[in-house]
Task: inverse folding
């Protein structure tokens, strides 16, 4: 059973008032479900802080490195901080945002803290992919599954991409030629997105140009033209991110179905991801998710877009 963020907070607040809070909770749910807000609110409740993430008794670890991983040094620092005496009358709180991003060494280090939690401490983990966490961590936390606060609809581009994935995996052949077909479809969707964004912004700029050309100095129009160019690129990057995130959600749902999780990011494609769950092992699925996430990171570093997409798709969908 999944809770709304508010109903979960009410239950935890009641447990706190009765001094029945456990020492570790894993707050899960899809993007937009309020995981971060719940962890922050519970931290404020037990420390009495109005701004808990700045409170000296609240210690946070989250992905910070270029690889978007939580590294072992962060976990060692968190453990040292939790061993210190609380500055106030409340509990010490350790929060790990995006806990599924723990490196293996960091995960092993944190397991020791879970097994022997510091006195008067509360450990909070958040994750939208709890199935990627080791069973040793899952079994030592009380799960608090959250439901999405209104599932956003798929964009036409996302729907077309999911249709291409459905066709790819329903085909008899998943050879290199088929993968390249998927690559071409993905790149075409990006090209169409860029062209649509550019056309929309050009139309908006044209309206401003017509309205202000006779009354405003040319420098202002030059500035507005540069603004719309930057806006076009920004909106394109957002659209690209959304399509890459759709690929991650596809494989994450495959993993969820394999691990018997019922909450899916793409429930309309449960039949397809369910069939794939029987065809791959968990490590194989996790490697494919990692390849897609690496694509996002590479594009953030301005790697040549088409080449980065081609390499990522060969690794995530080939073989």
Result:
């Amino acid at each position: 059973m999944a809770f709304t963020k508010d109903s979960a907070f009410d239950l935890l607040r009641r447990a706190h008032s009765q001094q029945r809070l456990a020492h570790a909770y894993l707050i899960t749910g899809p993007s937009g479900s309020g995981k971060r807000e719940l962890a922050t609110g519970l931290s404020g409740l037990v420390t009495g802080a109005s701004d808990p993430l700045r409170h000296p008794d609240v210690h946070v670890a989250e992905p910070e490195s270029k690889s978007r991983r939580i590294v072992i040094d962060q976990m060692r620092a968190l453990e040292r901080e939790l061993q210190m005496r609380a500055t106030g009358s409340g509990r010490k709180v350790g929060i790990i945002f995006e806990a599924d991003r723990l490196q293996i060494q960091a995960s092993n280090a944190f397991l020791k803290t879970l097994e022997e939690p510091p006195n008067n401490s509360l450990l909070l983990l958040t994750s939208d992919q709890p199935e990627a966490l080791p069973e040793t961590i899952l079994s030592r936390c009380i799960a608090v599954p959250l439901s999405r606060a209104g599932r956003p609809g798929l964009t036409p581009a996302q729907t077309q991409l999911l249709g291409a994935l459905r066709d790819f995996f329903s085909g008899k052949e998943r050879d290199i030629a088929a993968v390249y077909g998927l690559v071409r479809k993905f790149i075409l969707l990006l090209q169409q997105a860029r062209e649509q964004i550019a056309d929309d912004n050009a139309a908006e700029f044209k309206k401003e140009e017509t309205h202000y050309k006779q009354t405003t100095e040319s420098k202002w129009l030059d500035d507005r033209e540069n603004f719309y160019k930057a806006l076009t690129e920004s909106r394109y990057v957002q659209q690209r991110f959304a399509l890459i995130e759709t690929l991650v959600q596809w494989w994450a749902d495959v993993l969820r179905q394999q691990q018997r999780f019922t909450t899916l990011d793409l429930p309309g494609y449960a039949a397809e991801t369910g069939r794939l769950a029987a065809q791959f092992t968990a490590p194989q699925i996790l490697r494919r998710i990692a390849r897609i996430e690496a694509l996002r990171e590479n594009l953030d570093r301005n790697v040549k877009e088409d080449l980065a997409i081609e390499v990522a798709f060969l690794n995530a969908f080939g073989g």
Notes: The CA atoms of residues 100 and 130 lie 6 Å apart. The first strand starts at residue 24 and ends at 28.
